[in-house]
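Milestone 3.1: sequence recovery, worked example.
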């Protein structure tokens, strides 16, 4: 484990594994690097996987409270790349990590080779396509902090029963109520819809058809807004498809490989 210095001096715990092209993993809201579990291990067989704990969670410092926005959290991601000695990398962001990844690709286009966005969105929506009551119910479950209640929002129940260690790793990141609240606010206030056209990196959008926390319509709008994007709708997948749908690892390899040849 190593420490990267964020722009405000906060220490960010990071680690790496594997060889090959660098691949930066950006975890979701109040989730640490351990939450990538078997997915990080699988990707490390093909890439130099770099992952870290967001500020305020796991082994990373809280830092300046004013820096809890997705755009400023993208500067943390750039700082981790600097610490790893990486000029540019493929970037894979899940949920809030996908929101952060958008800003990294927008504000630092030269640092992002290929972009993978999973179970994420360009920001909040108020159109009629969103089932507001269902979304608020899912959000209430998320805010409960109870892994047993939250797990069905993220994972297929059969998969979760067969992979208890991965589920514990995903939900087990240490974070204070102070940090969780700021992560929630950063994710909730994200709005990159008008800036998506600035993303130059080829982008793979992965989204579950049964994602209650990020409606499928968000992925469709991301696809429309990012010119060089490919949208893959994953049948039956929920919000944690980066873990319980391991076939996505092969898709990511194929997508990156086709654009690195």
């Amino acid at each position: 484990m190593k420490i990267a210095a964020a722009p405000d001096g906060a220490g960010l715990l990071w680690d790496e594994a594997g060889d090959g092209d660098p691949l930066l993993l950006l975890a979701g809201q109040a989730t640490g690097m351990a939450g990538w579990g078997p997915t990080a291990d699988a990707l490390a067989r093909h890439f130099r996987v770099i992952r870290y704990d967001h500020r305020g969670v796991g082994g990373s410092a809280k830092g300046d409270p004013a820096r809890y926005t997705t755009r400023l959290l993208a500067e943390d991601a750039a700082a981790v790349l600097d610490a790893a000695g990486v000029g540019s990398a493929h970037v894979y962001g899940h949920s809030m990590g996908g929101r952060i990844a958008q800003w990294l690709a927008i504000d630092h286009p030269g640092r992002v080779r290929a972009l993978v966005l999973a179970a994420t969105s360009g920001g909040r929506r108020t159109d009629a396509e969103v089932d507001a009551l269902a979304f608020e119910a899912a959000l209430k479950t998320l805010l409960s902090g109870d892994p047993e209640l939250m797990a069905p929002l993220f994972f297929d129940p059969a998969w979760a029963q067969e992979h208890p260690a991965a589920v514990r790793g995903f939900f087990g990141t240490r974070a204070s109520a102070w940090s969780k609240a700021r992560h929630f606010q950063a994710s909730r206030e994200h709005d990159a819809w008008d800036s998506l056209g600035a993303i130059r990196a080829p982008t793979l959008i992965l989204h579950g058809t049964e994602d209650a926390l990020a409606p499928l319509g968000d992925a469709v709008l991301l696809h429309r807004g990012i010119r060089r994007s490919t949208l893959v709708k994953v049948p039956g997948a929920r919000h944690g498809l980066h873990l319980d749908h391991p076939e996505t690892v092969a898709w990511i390899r194929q997508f990156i490989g086709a654009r690195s040849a």
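The longest helix spans residues 70-83. The beta strands are 2-5, 11-17, 22-26, 48-52, 89-94, 112-118, 203-208, 229-234.
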